[in-house]
Amino acid sequence: MDIIGTILWPLKWVVSAILVGFHWIFESIGLDPGAGITWVLSIIFLTFVVRAALIPIFVRQIKSQRRMLEVAPQLKKIQDKYKGKKDQFSREAMSRETMALYKETGTNPLSSCLPLLLQMPIFFSLYSVLHEAQINKTGIGLLTNDLAASFGNAALFGAPLHETFTNASGWEVRAIAGFMIVVMTASQFITQLQLVAKNMSPETKESPMYRQQKMMLYILPLVFVISGLSFPLGVMFYWLASNVWTMAQQYFVIRSMPTPGSEAALAREARLAKKAQRRGTATPVLAEAGAGASAAEIEAVRVTTQRQQPVGKQRSKKNGKK
Questions:
Q1: Which of 92, 122, 259, 277 fits 282 for a cystine, CB–CB 3.0-4.6 Å?
Q2: What region, left, alpha or beta, does residue 30 occupy, with left being phi > 0 and alpha being psi -120 to 50 degrees?
Q3: What are phi and psi of 203, to 5 degrees?
Q4: Other CB atoms closer than 10 Å to residue 85's CB: what's the count?
Q5: How far is C-alpha 172 from the geometric centre of its chain's CA atoms?
Q6: How far apart are CA 58 and CA 52, in angstroms?
């Protein structure tokens, strides 16, 4: 009995239904139902539906990451406390204090992997649908036998969608697959670089989390290079569209909701301040820094202003009593 196939069957049915739905739409507007471009567009729009459905999970991921960044200094203190201690008692004590910190702050280090984990069953379902269409198995749900055969035999610019880089029957498959692997790798690298370079506070850059993120900057693109060689073109279009969505989505989040204290947050403050100045409502910080001030200069003036902030009489008396 195929346990994995049984578990994935409902997802395969949904994936097939969405795929067939977009195929019908593109066929209705005049595209050739058997052409590779029709199926590729159907796969891409299937990707958009999946990623749009995962937006609430992505928002939760961002909030969880923010909480992880907030507790990073406390986590580092715990690690420094037990640094160099390799005995069983110290390791257990560090583990208890770490878990207590996570529980107290409501953080979960695994939550950042949740969107990826939720996508994997859909990814494997699409892979299974494409593979079964390739070997002429019975269609699933709305994907009838005729549509499954059409999907399995579809080709883009002479490259069959069911073929991979390693088992390609012609140079067309290797050319398209090679190009897609390069684009997939580059998009993943840029996505991770945005996070590491612009959306981390100075405190986080001194924590172990930053070193882990820097490692992922080079490891994840390597995964795409290796795995991309063995995936069918149809599945690679899903993966590429998902990568581009992630890159655009993260760019929007970093630009509009950056991590406090990060380079992106300073750049956003500078943009908002300059916009306020153009409207004639410039803040005192921007007025002191100057119209052409950079984000770093504005932050320096803001910190200095906070330090020199005048204290009221009542508050001064209270401070004197203390």
A1: 277
A2: left
A3: -65, -40
A4: 11
A5: 30
A6: 10
- The long-range contacts involving 3-10, CB below 8 angstroms and separated by at least 24 positions, are 5/128, 8/121, 8/124, 8/125, 8/128, 9/140
Look at the block and give the residue holding tokens 């995936």. 231
Going by C-alpha positions, the residue among 314, 28, 34 that lies closest to residue 156 is 34
- Phi-psi region for residue 84, left (φ > 0), alpha (ψ -120 to 50) or beta? left
Least confident of 117-131, 196-210, 226-240, 297-311: 297-311
Residue 19 near residue 143, CB atoms below 8 Å: yes
Determine contact, residues 13/141, Cβ cutoff 8 Å: yes
The 10s digit of each residue's pLDDT in 35-54 is: 889 999 999 999 899 888 88
pTM for this structure? 0.70
* Alpha carbon distance 99, 207 (integer Å): 17
Torsion-angle region of residue 190: left (phi > 0), alpha (psi -120 to 50) or beta? alpha
